[in-house]
Amino acid sequence: MENPHDIEQRLTDLEIKATFTEDLLEQLDQVIVRQQQQIDLLIREIGHLRQPATDGQPGAARNLRDELPPHY
């Protein structure tokens, strides 16, 4: 049979590991929340970029040649 001190030490070690695991889980949850917020923001920005830029003229056709950088 094991020494009561050994059992108590093992229990203490398990409690310490459980505490570290809970802390790590909380940190990972916070990272996931931040990443989801960033994803939501990027989805909104992509949606805005997909909308045609008409320079205030509704129904104006876009010519992709007009959007080329000057070095082309």
Topology, pairings included?
Elements: H1 4-50
Count of strand segments: 0
Helix content: 55-70%
Instruction: State which percent range the strand residues make up.
Output: under 5%
Q: What's the main sheet like? A: none
Quaternary arrangement of the chains shown? single chain
Instruction: Calculate the mean pLDDT score and round it.
Output: 86
The succession of helices and strands, N to C, reads H
Output the number of helix runs: 1
Query: What's the Cα radius of gyration?
Result: 29 Å
- Distance N terminus to C terminus? 83 Å
- Which structural class is indicated by helix and strand composition? mainly alpha
Overall spatial form: rod-shaped
Model regions low in confidence, pLDDT < 50 over at least 5 residues = none
Biased composition (Basic and acidic residues): 63-72
Region (Disordered): 50-72
Protein name: SlyX family protein
Pfam families: SlyX
What does this structure look like?
The protein is an all-alpha fold and 72 residues long. The chain has a domain at 25-50. Helices cover 65% and strands 0% of the residues. It contains one helix and no strands. It is rod-shaped, with a radius of gyration of 29 Å. The chain starts with a helix and ends in a 22-residue tail after the last helix. The relative contact order is 0.05. The mean pLDDT is 86.
